[in-house]
Specification:
The complex is a heterodimer of chains A (about 325) and B (about 270).
Chain A (H helix, E strand, L loop, with lengths): L1 E6 L9 H11 L4 E9 L3 H8 L6 E6 L8 H11 L5 E5 L2 H13 L4 E5 L1 E2 L4 E6 L4 E6 L6 E5 L14 E4 L10 E7 L13 E5 L10 H10 L2 E4 L1 H5 L20 E5 L5 H4 L7 E6 L6 H4 L2 E4 L2 H13 L1
Parallel strand pairs in A: 1-2, 1-4, 2-3, 3-10, 4-9, 5-9, 12-13, 12-14, 14-15, 15-16
Antiparallel strand pairs in A: 6-7, 7-8
Chain B lengths: L5 H13 L3 E5 L2 E3 L21 E3 L1 H15 L5 E8 L4 H10 L3 E6 L6 H15 L3 E5 L10 H9 L3 E11 L2 E8 L2 E8 L2 E5 L11 H7 L4 E5 H4 L8 E6 L8 E3 L2 H10 L4
The chains are: A alpha/beta (about 325), B alpha/beta (about 270).
Bound molecules: flavin-adenine dinucleotide and adenosine monophosphate.
Chain lengths: ~325, ~270
């Protein structure tokens, strides 16, 4: 019997879809009972959302003022104290989960299975290493709690339709005050979210300036797509860091990914391995991106992109 | 103390409060990031024979940050630590050539799990009492992304992962973190663990004279067994496989061709 606790990711008001992806992963373990823990300032609305995920049996709502911001040092002791009685504790492999879960694992005295991409049994999983150049099958020890992060691009979000019980819960965990939240700076945008969008248009170093990136935004808006970028475009300051796709950026799995002026470095490709269809637009026919693209077009992006945008108009 | 000496005394005190004194940096020896690694035919592991090895890129960034902190006068000593076989001396020597003051190699022939590594760091912290531990956010071989967070947990100290900016104010540090939703800033009390992301800085190149000088810097070796760390249950790696490869698709001539191909796939 697997009794699985999933730590919910949210922004204080709504649940991140990474949580429903963790539920899908957990549900692949035979006979799993799934509980979602929501740690928030006021957990009620997010807990209600979690309770509606299909496959969730129970939701723990832990409301505490220190949970207003997701500080790992404050949340890890709470999660570790909730973990008692569970066989597995899962979190998403997003920056939230990557920050928190190893701290939980260490408090529980176990190693973590990072980035589960496939479930082969209650303690048997597959995970990528070497930037996805190898897949390793791992067996977690059977006599210890399994703490893991779930590679969100490998699992579809569990659908709504559940009606789980919500239990207001508190922990007696000691919460340190040596770490304080100051601020979050995020490029507010009405565009679809990069991590969940069905379509993504990305630009690379070839855009050469943030002004030129406008042609990427215009095309994306026409398609209802999210906008991404290569590390080179982020490093050059054309776009903010949260738009980076790849090994050290976001790992995404849209139905359609359009890479424009991106060479296709291995670290970039790591982020789009699970995309449905990859389209590449690049003026260099030798660019490695064409080796993985489903549809390739050799051409100058400054001609191709406006033409494509215009063609979509009609 | 004479009255005239007082201002100097307070000035020295305020300087002292600015200082983090010792910084401990983790350097892991990994397959160079430019190498395209291959899984061995029998699935027993990844081919590492004769492959170029380097300092984990995130650790190089962590070290660069430590050196810049020291060069700003905010720290007095930078110690690099590696856990691994005697081969890791190479990476520690490179770290010394970059500017670290001394190196510690904890020798072990068997690969260690992240929690054991965190416990090794804890043991060295007990001996050295650093005010700051700078690690990479992840080692690019196993892509675990665990050691820093685990160390902070068992040390009972703050963690600032995925750092893109670090600034000190007395006994605290403000760290900007690269998170999925943007740039988060947190304030942490020292001592603490900070893990470096790619945009924290650009590491310097090592110059030949520095390589020569580094040969004289101390490199202490400690056998893992001497540290007496408790070993947790380990996650067993049973087999390795290459990833599913994406096949090369079609090439189209122009924009109308692209539109047609997209329509074909039901994507427009
Ligand atoms: C540890 C590590 C982690 C990394 N993580 C990431 C990551 O997460 N994400 C990431 O993206 N990278 C990452 N990188 C960097 C990666 O190695 C590449 O440097 C980067 O992806 C290159 O970005 P690019 O394709 O935009 O630029 P380039 O490689 O410079 O490619 C630009 C492309 O644009 C084409 N081009 C130029 N002009 C035009 C034009 N007018 N029209 C059409 N095409 C044109 C060129 O032919 C070229 O192919 C990482 C590197 C390291 C070492
Ligand atoms: N064997 C090691 N020796 C020195 N530092 C290490 C070692 N393993 C991990 N680290 C540090 O911990 C960071 C995170 O590693 P990991 O948790 O394995 O992804 C690395 O970037 C290093 O700074």
């Amino acid at each position: 019997m697997a009794n699985i606790l999933i730590v919910a990711e949210h922004d204080g008001t709504s649940l991140n879809t990474s949580t429903a992806k963790c539920v899908t992963c957990a549900a692949q373990i035979n006979g799993a009972t799934i509980t979602v823990a929501v740690l928030a300032d006021d957990a009620s609305s997010v807990a209600a959302e979690a309770a509606a995920i299909d496959g969730v049996q129970k939701v723990l709502a832990i409301s505490h003022p220190t949970n207003a911001s997701p500080l790992a040092s404050a949340q890890a002791p709470q999660v570790a104290s909730l973990a008692d009685g569970y066989t597995h504790v899962f979190g998403p492999s997003t920056t939230f989960g990557k920050d928190l879960m190893p701290r939980v694992a260490a408090l529980l005295g176990v190693n973590q299975v990072s980035d589960i991409m496939k479930v082969n049994g209650s303690h048997a999983f597959e995970r990528p290493i070497y930037a996805g150049n190898a897949i390793v099958s791992v067996d977690a020890p059977a006599d210890a709690v399994v703490v893991a992060t779930v590679r969100t691009a490998s699992f579809k979000a569990a659908s709504a339709g559940g009606n789980a019980e919500v239990a207001e819960t508190s922990t007696d965990a000691e919460i340190p005050n040596h770490t304080r939240y100051v601020s979050l700076q995020s490029g507010q945008s009405d565009r679809p979210d990069l991590q969940t969008a069905g379509k993504v248009v990305s630009g690379g170093r070839a855009l050469a300036s943030s002004e030129n990136f406008d042609i990427i935004y215009t095309l994306a808006d026409k398609m209802g797509a999210a906008v991404g970028a290569s590390r080179a475009a982020v490093d050059a300051g054309y776009v903010p860091n949260e738009m980076q796709v790849g090994q050290t950026g976001k790992i995404i799995a849209p139905e359609l990914y359009i890479a424009i002026g991106i060479s296709g470095a291995i670290q970039h490709l790591t982020g789009i391995k699970d995309a449905g269809t990859i389209v590449a637009i690049n003026k260099d026919e030798e660019a490695p991106i064409f080796e993985v693209a489903d549809i390739g077009l050799v051409g100058d992006l400054f001609n191709v992109v406006p033409e494509l945008t215009e063609a979509l108009d009609s | 103390m004479s009255l005239r000496a007082l201002p100097v005394f307070f000035w020295a005190q305020s300087l002292r409060r600015q200082t983090v004194e010792k910084i401990l940096v983790g350097l892991k020896r990994v397959v160079d990031y430019n190498v395209r690694v291959r899984v061995k035919n029998d699935g027993s592991g990844v081919e590492t024979d004769g492959v170029k090895m380097s300092i984990n890129p995130f650790d190089e960034i962590a070290l660069e940050e430590a050196l810049r902190i020291k060069e700003r006068g905010e720290a007095s000593e930078v110690i690099v630590l590696s856990i691994g076989t005697a081969d890791s001396q190479q990476q520690l020597r490179t770290g010394l050539a970059m500017g670290a003051d001394r190196a510690i190699l904890v020798t072990t022939d068997e690969p260690l799990d992240p929690l054991s590594r965190a416990r090794v760091f804890q043991e060295i912290i007990n001996r050295e009492s650093p005010d700051l531990v700078l690690l990479g956010k992840q080692a690019i071989d196993e892509d675990n992304n665990q050691t820093g967070q685990m160390l902070a947990a068992i040390w009972g100290r703050p963690q600032a992962t995925f750092a893109s900016e670090v600034a000190f104010e007395g006994n605290t540090a403000k760290v900007t973190r690269e998170v999925d939703s943007g740039l988060e800033t947190i304030e942490i009390d020292l001592p603490a663990v900070v893990t470096a992301d790619l945009r924290l800085n650009e590491p310097r190149y090592v110059k030949l004279p520095d390589i020569m000088k580094a040969k004289k810097k101390p490199l202490d070796e400690i056998a893992l067994g001497e540290l007496g760390i408790e070993r947790p249950p380990v996650i067993n790696e049973s087999s390795f496989a290459p990833p599913a490869v994406r096949q090369k698709g079609i090439m189209v001539e122009d924009v109308p061709g692209l539109l047609a191909a997209l329509k074909d796939k039901g994507l427009l």
